[in-house]
Write a structure and sequence with these properties.
Thioredoxin_CS, globular, about 35% helix, Thioredoxin, disulfide bond, electron transport
Length: about 110
């Protein structure tokens, strides 16, 4: 696992169990090691994961190592943030953003 943000990394193999099977809403960051904005976003997501861990699960998926899931959800750029509730994507956001803005955008799914 080369993502060093402290967030859980999911793969094509465990995506269904970790994301679709989750009791909580799940925010998936589609990311890549070479993606600068992804690295900028990681501490923001780590903070939110710590503060909202009882209401929201946050995971990362490396687009280069997990092409199946990346293609299945039509992810074309990184970072893409996708919120899943009851196994279905309910929100998609592209690009890094500050913590306050991200929390505002997530307010209705929390």
């Amino acid at each position: 696992m080369s993502l060093v943000s402290g967030l859980t990394e999911v793969t094509d193999a465990d995506f269904a169990a970790e994301v679709k099977g989750s009791e909580l809403p799940v925010l998936v960051q589609f990311t890549a090691d070479w993606c600068g904005p992804c690295r900028q976003l990681a501490p923001v997501l780590k903070d939110i994961a710590f503060e909202e861990g009882d209401r929201l699960k946050i995971v990362q998926l490396d687009v280069d190592r997990n092409p199946e899931t990346t293609v299945a959800y039509g992810v074309l750029s990184t970072p893409t943030l996708m919120v899943f509730r009851d196994g279905e994507p309910v929100r998609s956001m592209v690009g890094a953003r500050p913590k306050r803005r991200l929390l505002e955008e997530l307010a209705d799914v929390l």
